[in-house]
Design brief:
The chain is mainly α and about 300 residues long. It has one domain. Helix content is about 80%, strand content about 0%. Helix 5 packs antiparallel against helix 6.
Length: about 300
C-alpha cells in the first residue's frame, strides 16, 4: 500500500478518538449502577501498566500524533474506571480511591518519561532493542489484560458488569488504528499485532455474551418460577390448617349451643335434683296422700 499521510492521519484520528474515550461509557455505567461486579479490576490495572511501554514505543517511533496521544488518554480513563472498582466492589473510601488514582497516574507518567529517555539513549548508540522491547511488552500487556475479564465471565457464567458499548467502541478503535498503519510508509508489525489481538479477544467477549447471557436469563427465569411456586405452596398450607381449625371450632360451638338449649328446656327443680333424688323410691305428693288415707283413725 503506497504511503498516504492524509489517510494515515484521518484513520489514526478516528481510532484515537474511539480508543481514547471508549472507557467513558463504562465509567458512566459503573457510576449510575454504583456496581462494578463482573468488571475485572485486574483488566484495568494491566491496561494502565501496558499503556506505559506502549506510549513510550509510539513516541520513540514517532508514529502519527493521534496514536501518540491515545495511550495517554486511555490510561487516564482506565485509572478512573479502576478506582470505581475499588470503590464499588471493594468498599474503599472515596478519599482513598482518589489518592490511589492520583498516585497511580503519577507513577505511570514518571515511568513513561524514564523509559522514553532510556530508549532514546539506546537509539543514539545505534541500538533499537529497548524500543522494540517497549513495543512488544506494551502490546502483550494490552492484549493479556483481557484475560482476567474472561475469568470473570467464567465465574459468573455470563458477561456481567462490562459495558457492551465500551467493547464496541474499543473494537472499532482497534480496526481504525490498524487501518491507519496500512497507509504508513513502513508497516509497523508490533503495533498491528497489538490492535489485532485486542479486536480478536473483544469479539470473543461478544461471542460469550451471545451464548451465555440468554442461558443465564433463562436460568434466572426458571428460578423465579420455582420460588413463586414454593411461596404459593407455603401460603396454602397455613390456609388449610386454618380452615380445619375453624371447622372444629364451629362444631364445638354448635355442641355448646345444643347443651345450652337443652338446659333451658329442663325444669328448674329437675336441674337441681341429684340422681338419688330422681330414683323411683322417692315419694311423690300422691303417695303421701294415700298413706294418710290408709292410716286408721
Amino acid at each position: 500500500m503506497p504511503k498516504n499521510a492524509v489517510a494515515e492521519n484521518v484513520l489514526g484520528t478516528i481510532g484515537t478518538v474511539l480508543w481514547s474515550f471508549q472507557l467513558v461509557p463504562q465509567i458512566i455505567k459503573s457510576y449510575r449502577a454504583k456496581d462494578t461486579d463482573g468488571l475485572s479490576a485486574w483488566l484495568l490495572l494491566i491496561w494502565v501498566a501496558g499503556s506505559i511501554p506502549q506510549g513510550t514505543y509510539l513516541v520513540v517511533q514517532n508514529i502519527n500524533i493521534p496514536l501518540i496521544i491515545q495511550p495517554q488518554l486511555f490510561s487516564t480513563f482506565a485509572i478512573i474506571a479502576m478506582a470505581q472498582c475499588w470503590r464499588y466492589s471493594h468498599g474503599v473510601s472515596t478519599r482513598q480511591c482518589t489518592l490511589g488514582a492520583l498516585a497511580t497516574g503519577l507513577i505511570a507518567g514518571g515511568c513513561e518519561v524514564g523509559f522514553y529517555f532510556l530508549c532514546k539513549l539506546g537509539e543514539s548508540r545505534g541500538t533499537s532493542a529497548g524500543t522494540k522491547t517497549m513495543g512488544i511488552v506494551g502490546a502483550a500487556l494490552i492484549v493479556l489484560g483481557l484475560v482476567p475479564q474472561f475469568y470473570e465471565i467464567w465465574r459468573y457464567r455470563e458477561v456481567k458488569g462490562i459495558s457492551l458499548l465500551f467493547l464496541a467502541i474499543d473494537c472499532s478503535g482497534g480496526v481504525f488504528s490498524l487501518l491507519s498503519l496500512v497507509f504508513k510508509e513502513s508497516f509497523d508489525g508490533i503495533a498491528a499485532a497489538n490492535y489485532i489481538g485486542i479486536v480478536v479477544l473483544e469479539l470473543g467477549i461478544f461471542a460469550c455474551y451471545l451464548v451465555l447471557n440468554p442461558k443465564a436469563a433463562r436460568k434466572r427465569q426458571l428460578e423465579q418460577q420455582q420460588n413463586a411456586t414454593e411461596t404459593n405452596s407455603d401460603d396454602s398450607a397455613p390456609t388449610a390448617a386454618s380452615a380445619t381449625t375453624t371447622a372444629a371450632q364451629g362444631d364445638h360451638d354448635m355442641e355448646q349451643a345444643h347443651q345450652t338449649s337443652a338446659s333451658e328446656t329442663t325444669p328448674e327443680w329437675l336441674r337441681h335434683t341429684t340422681f338419688d333424688e330422681k330414683s323411683p323410691t322417692m315419694s311423690s305428693p300422691i303417695d303421701t296422700r294415700r298413706m294418710r288415707l290408709d292410716t286408721p283413725a
